Amino acid sequence: MDALHTTGIRFAEVLQSGPPWLEKFWISVTSLADPKCIFTVCFPLAYFLDRKVGVSVLWIGLVSEWLNVVLKWFLFGERPFWWVHESGFASKELVVLRQFPVSCETGPGDPSGHCMITGAALWPLVTALTALASKHSRSLVAKLSPFGAYALLLLALGLSRVFVLAHFPHQVVSGILAGAALGWGLQAHTPAARTPGFFVATALALLLSSLALHSLLIAVGIDIDW
């Protein structure tokens, strides 16, 4: 893992050596694509366009948010900002990295929550836009443009997370793959006909199960808050 982490640090150095305008771009991307935007922006917009798509975005966002926390408890994953000091790497080799206000994230880092949750929750919206484009245009470019934009967004988001030292590249990749797989798998199982009470009950159940799992791991000696 040290070799993987070292490669990630060097990659972050390359990203941070870019022009000043690119720095503003990366920080804007990592801020605007925060998972909370799925619930505050993407869900309302998707619901306004199509109720079923909106519910699917909400449902997948809810499940992926919970699953990301659980996966981090089991996979752990170092954060670059802390690893360079705690591992002793910075004292052995020259490291040229800058800190940003969003750099000091704590807790396990694998997989990336930004990439996983955004990738999962946007999947139904992207597939709906693809179907709409296919219905109104025969152009292959028009049909593929929603998924092209989706891929570019996740790529930019992943690079921005490495840039601000919140994640290593492999954590970003695992987040993107897990998110796309989760979005694809859950879209067909969206409980669109359920009442709002169902979602409230589900959210409560996920919360309680997380607390129970947290207590269980602590009880068996696994410090997930390391």
TrEMBL record:
Coiled coil: none annotated. Its EC number is 3.1.3.9. The chain crosses the membrane at residues 56-76, 116-133, 140-162, 168-186, 198-222. Keywords: Endoplasmic reticulum, Gluconeogenesis, Hydrolase, Membrane, Transmembrane, Transmembrane helix. Pathway: Carbohydrate biosynthesis; gluconeogenesis. One of its GO terms (molecular function) is glucose-6-phosphatase activity. Residues 53-187 form the Phosphatidic acid phosphatase type 2/haloperoxidase domain. One of its GO terms (biological process) is glucose 6-phosphate metabolic process. It is a multi-pass membrane protein. Pfam families: PAP2. It comes from the Eukaryota. GO terms for cellular component: endoplasmic reticulum membrane. It is found in: Endoplasmic reticulum membrane. Belongs to the glucose-6-phosphatase family. This is Glucose-6-phosphatase 3. The gene is G6pc3.
